[in-house]
Amino acid sequence: MILSFSILPLFSLFAKEISLKEFLALALKNNLELKAFQQAIKASELEKEAAKGAYFPRLKLEELLSHSDIPAQVFTFKLNQEEFSAKDFEIKKLNDPKSRTNFETRLTLELPIWLGGKIQAQVKQAEAHFRALKNLYERKEEEVLSQVYQAYLFAILSKESIKVSESSIREAEEHLRIAKARYQAGTALLSDVYRAEVYLNRAKESQEKAKNYYSLAKKNLELLVNTSLGDFEVEDLASIPQIEIERVKTLAFQNRKDLKALEEEIKTQREAYKVTLSENLPQISAFATYSLNDKNYPFGSSGSGYLLGLGLTWKFDTGLTTLKKAQAELQKSSSLEKKYLFLKNNILFEIEKAHTEYQNALYKFKSAESRIQASTEMLRIIQLRYQSGLARMLDLLDAQSELDQARLERLQALKDLHEAYMQILLAGGILKEAL
Prior knowledge:
Elements: E1 16-18, H1 20-30, H2 32-52, E2 58-68, H3 71-80, H4 91-95, E3 100-114, H5 118-184, H6 190-225, E4 232-234, H7 245-255, H8 257-277, E5 283-294, E6 303-313, H9 321-387, H10 393-428, H11 431-434
Parallel strand pairs: 1-4
Antiparallel strand pairs: 2-3, 3-5, 5-6
Helix pairs in contact: 1-5, 2-5, 5-6, 5-8, 5-10, 7-9, 7-10, 8-9, 9-10
C-alpha cells in the first residue's frame, strides 16, 4: 500500500516543489503538538523512575535547637551531652534545675521493608502509564500525519482548480471572440456578447478564489509542520490509491496504538486500586539514627550515640474512607474496560465507513471522467453549430458549464479518494507504515 504521486522537477521556474513525503517528515520532526507530547512522555518517564526510587533508603539530616528548665528535659540534655555528674543527683538540682540549651544533630536512615504492597503497585502503575503515553504518542503521530495529508490534498485541489479555471478562461475567451465576430457580422445578438462576457468574468472570479484557497492551504501546511518554507508548490496527484480492506481489518486491533494505550490505562487503574487499598494493610520499616548533642554549638559533639529500630504500623480507617476510595478506583477501571470494548467495535465501523466513502468517491471519479469526455465532445459540436448559427449562446455556455463542472468534480472525487484511503489507513492504525 504505497501512495504514489507524479514525479516532477524539484524546482519549478519560480518556486521549489515540496512532496507529501517531505511534509510528513517535517511534521514528525517539528510539529508543536508532537513536541508537547514528547515533553509529557519525558515527564512520565521521570515519574516512573521516581516511583522506583521508593525502594531505596532515605537519608534525613536534622538540626534541633532546644532550651528548657523542665527537670526531665534538663536531665536528658545533660545525659546526652555526656556532662552529667554526681552533683546533679542532688534533690534540689533535680527538682529545680537551671535552664539549659541543647543542639542536637540527627542523621537518620529510613528503609521501607513492606508498605502493604504500595511501592510495588506504584511502580507498576507508573510503568503502565508510561507505556500508555508512548502508545498515545504514536497514535498522535498518525493523527498529525493525517492532518498534513488532508491539508496537502486541499492544496492540490486548489492548485488543480486554478488550472481548470485557466482552461475555462481560455475557452470562455474563445466563445466571446466568436460572439463578437458573429455580432459584427450581424448574425448574432448583442446579448450573446454580454452572456459570453459574464461567463468569462465568472471564470476569472473562480480562478481568484482558487488562488486564494491555494495560498491559505500552503499557510496551513506551514502551520502543521511548524516551518516557514517561503514560496513553494505542491506536487500533482497522479494515481488512484489501492487498498486491501480485509488486511486492514485483520491487523487493526494489533496496530491501533490508542487501543493498546487503553489497555495500559486499565492496568494503571488496577494498580491504583492496590495503592489505595495498601493504606489499610500493615506497613513495616526500619530506621537507624546517629545523634550528636552539644550545649553551645550546632553540629557540636560533646555527646553522641545511635538508635536502631524496626517499626510496624497498621492503621484502621473506621470511616471506611480508604475502602470507598478503592471501590471508586474499581469503578474507574470498569469504566475504562467499557470504553475499550466500544473502541474495538468502533474501529471496525470506522474502517467500514471510510471504505464506503472510498467506493463512493471511486464511482464519482469514474463518472466525472466519463462526463468530461462526453461534455468535451458536446461542447465541440455546439460550438460548431453556434458558429453556423444553428445553436444559441445559452446552449454553448450550458455545455461549457457542464464541462467545467465535470472537471471540478473529477478533482474533488480524486481528493475524496485519497482522503478516504487515508481514513482507512488511520482507522486501521497503519497510516505511518503505509506513508
